[in-house]
């Protein structure tokens, strides 16, 4: 066992992926995803403005 071979081996570098040529369907799908993300962000912003939907948690009737 020599000292140079100890430890983990480094993984080989993966080749860089080429940019894909997107057709109309892919472009429409990406656009739709962006619009859904914007709508989700707007909904989150609106929800954070208001208080919680449930008010009191467990309600006690007061009966004994």
Automatic annotation (TrEMBL):
Residues 39-50 have a biased composition (Low complexity). Residues 53-64 have a biased composition (Gly residues). Coiled coil: none annotated. Pfam families: TMA7 (PF09072). Residues 27-38 have a biased composition (Basic and acidic residues). Residues 1-64 are annotated as: Disordered. This is Translation machinery-associated protein 7 homolog.
